[in-house]
Amino acid sequence: MEEGLVKRRELSALGFVASLTAAARILPGLGAAAAGPAAWLCPLAALPGALLVCECLYSAMRHARRGEGLSALALRSLGRVSGGILLVLYALWLVFYAAFSLRSASSRFTIAIYPGTDPDIFVAVGAAACLVPALGRYSSLGRAAVVCRGLLALALALILALGLASADARNLLPVTAEDALPVLSGAPPALGILTLLLCATSLPGGAEAPRRRDYLRRCLALSALFTLIVAATVGRFGAPLAARFELPFFTMVKNISLPGLTDRVEALITAFWVFSDFAMCSLALMAASGAVRMALGLPESPQGPRLGGGRWITVLFAAAAFVLAQLMAPTNFALTALSQRYVPALNLIMAGALLLPTALAAHLRGRRPAGG
Fold first, then answer.
1. How many CB atoms lie within 10 A of CB 65?
2. Using CA atoms, how far apart are residues 10 and 308, in angstroms rounded to an integer?
3. CB-neighbour burial class of residue 29 (10 A; exposed 0-12, middle 13-18, buried 19+)
4. Which of 195, 224, 197, 252 shows the shortest CA–CA distance to 43?
5. End-to-end distance of the chain based on CA atoms, in angstroms?
6. Cβ neighbours, 10 Å, residue 116
7. How far is the CA of 91 from the CAs of 49, 283, 290, 301, in angstroms?
8. What digits encode the pLDDT tens for the residues 74-102?
9. CA 310, CA 298: separation in Å to the nearest integer?
10. Of 280, 345, 348, 287, residue with least CA distance to 313
């Protein structure tokens, strides 16, 4: 049984890989618009809120049984009706986010590599590719994330090294006390990404027991990573220009060159970023379908190749994500508005609606005397 559990390092790898698409897409532009040259401090300003989410999640998950995820804990702590309603609501949000991930990935390809191409092609291929791991085991997705993390870390290290080397310090400094409020106003997007990843990776069962320091390390590492992404992008272009780009990070990548190797590396880097889209969409579909199966009294992870035992829910959710991705944000401008104004806020609202009642109920049940 122990060998089948998702290891903590695999959860960490999954969080890293799944975070990159959202962080690269929205944090540089939103931070630049909100805080100007101090945009690179916005992910760090999100850290206190993220640590509170970590503490709330740990206070709930410390009452989980061996191999139990947040879904099972919510049902056991809140009851099948209340817990089931919250799980279904959060699952629907994850399906929407999977659709948003598919649409964002298709937009990135049509903007950065294949201008004028029909984005529905990329949406269809992405939905079909993500369905396969979503039907599989959580441990398999975790192991795949470990492999992808190495490739993405190498690509990201190259981007950040070249981006920071060409950055102008005057685009990032000086930072004064007057920047405090703008920096705080730019913190929610980073907080939303961290909260989504913490909740989504905790939702399925079959992982090793969580430790407080694991949550803290993940938040610290991702906050530092987000800071470097924003600093490299804003430092290269300056805040006014970065705020006007649709995809400022990938615009920076498009202007990176490696003498003697290739004139431009944006096609290679954008292709690598498919791993992040793959991980985020697969995780969302797997967590959503598992939560709904548990709410319906079905096994969280049905065995066997057929669609019985509730596996059809995963297929249904993948089809729904495909349809939603085609319908949402018909233009890239609308997609940018969606990713900047609504998705970060909904991340926090939906996570709070599930996590706070579950943590409180689990804490109260944990304090209840035996037989009481």
1. 10
2. 28
3. buried
4. 224
5. 32
6. 5
7. 23, 11, 9, 15
8. 999 999 999 999 999 999 999 999 999 99
9. 7
10. 287
